[in-house]
Amino acid sequence: MNSIQAANYFVHFNTNCYTKLHEHLTESNYSKIFVLVDSNTHEHCLPSFMGNLQTEVPIEIIEIEAGEIHKNIETCTGVWNVLSELDADRKSLLINVGGGVVTDLGGFVASTFKRGISYINVPTSLLAMVDASVGGKTGVDLGTLKNQIGVINIPEMVLIDTSFLSTLPANQMRSGLAEMLKHGLIYDEAYWKKMINLADFTLEDLDDLIYESVQIKNKVVTEDPKEHGLRKILNFGHTLGHAIESYLLTHDTKEPLLHGEAIAVGMVLACYISNQQERFPTEKMTEIKRVMIDMYGKVEFNTSDYEAIIDLMKYDKKNSHGNINFVLLSDIGTPVLDKIVPNTTIMDAFKFYNS
Question: Which cofactors, by name (predicted)?
């Protein structure tokens, strides 16, 4: 696979990853290399990665706890302290080997330690490969509120080795597929149709779909790196999806959802709202609901859940001037930005989802 040029860096794939990494380390004068992993990727991914890492530069491994619950400033403080204790300086490199929690948090740690050191992302989950790989968004959660603290800062490179996907459980694979489905809905109906026929695909076909998904996101981000306009379309399904994800994290009696699972619900809700406000075709709305529920199952919500989730939307990063801004669709591949939606319509969307 050819490398994809993003904004001032490249996304490299599979065997080409390690060739490009070796070239970069040979050309750069790093004082030390720090590899950030979580407890899962330390066990399942680090041995393979280290076996492909060729360098004479001293290497230190830093491990954090796995899971979204640890994507916070407290974890960052722990990593910053370890970097200091191990004499990291401005010429150090941080390589983040893990899913979205590791790459988001590691990118933020690198961007802020000593006012910024270089970092490389090695996404090991499907979600991180197709979402966190492009755009330079780094950050952590504030309590249960998603990605409230962070900066946009590009890595030196991103390395996508799809062999790491063999270490993922099925629910993590499905979580990543949600972002790929989203790319089809917001950008390319032909890609959407490929994605809903996954049962007939081989692992090689999945590699091609991942590559195409990264291309779609890269086209959007390259045109609008700071999210002033077009890049907002990547938030389709996220306004409600993030609120649902945060809400379920706060309730001991409810089963939390992975990011992609929550976004799948958010996309069904957004399609209903699009149907009501933007005349999104009813037959496509119905098909999208069927696809999402077939793949992810149905989450049970009641009226009190609706109200609490709607209340959480006020914390969404895309809001401005006191308005909650939605990305909607007038058709597949035709997004509409900055739409204000009445609470009654959101309530009706939940009823449609539950029906």
Answer: NAD(+); Zn(2+); Co(2+)
**pLDDT under 50: residue ranges of the chain:** none
pLDDT in tens, 51-103: 999 999 999 999 999 999 999 999 999 999 999 999 999 999 999 999 999 99
b (16+ CB within 10 A) / e for 136-148: bbbbbbeebbbbe
Q: How far does CA 43 lie from the centroid of its chain?
A: 22
Per-residue pLDDT reduced to its tens digit, 235-261:
999 999 999 999 998 888 889 999 999
Residues shown for the chain: 355
Q: Give the N- to C-terminal CA distance of the chain in Å, as an integer.
A: 43
Pair 236, 185: CB distance under 8 Å: yes
Report how far residue 292's alpha carbon sits from residue 273's, in angstroms, rounded to the nearest whole number. Answer: 16
Residue of 147, 151, 144 lying closest to 317 (CA atoms) = 147
Distances (CA, A) of 28 to 31, 282, 291: 9, 55, 47
Range list of β-strands (E), 135-294: 140-142, 145-149, 157-160
Q: Which residues contact 65 (CB under 8 A, 6 or more apart)?
A: 38, 39, 75
Structure tokens that stand for 54 in this block? 């060729």
- Rounded to whole angstroms, how far apart are CA atoms 153 and 108? 8
**Burial degree of 39 (CB within 10 A; 0-12, 13-18, 19+):** middle
- pLDDT of res. 152: 93
Distance from C-alpha of 135 to C-alpha of 217, rounded to nearest angstrom: 8
pLDDT computed for residue 320 by the predictor = 58
Taking the complete model, does pTM exceed 0.90, yes or no?
yes
Domains defined along the chain, listed by start:
4-168 (3.40.50.1970), 172-354 (1.20.1090.10)
Is residue 271 within 8 A of residue 292, CB to CB? The reply is no
Asked if residue 24 lies in contact with residue 12, where contact means CB atoms within 8 angstroms, the answer is: no
Closest CA to 100 of 231, 230, 250, 262: 262
Give the full edge-to-edge strand order of the sheet including 59-64: 4-5, 10-13, 157-160, 118-123, 93-98, 33-38, 59-64
CA quadruple 125, 130, 131, 133: dihedral sign = positive
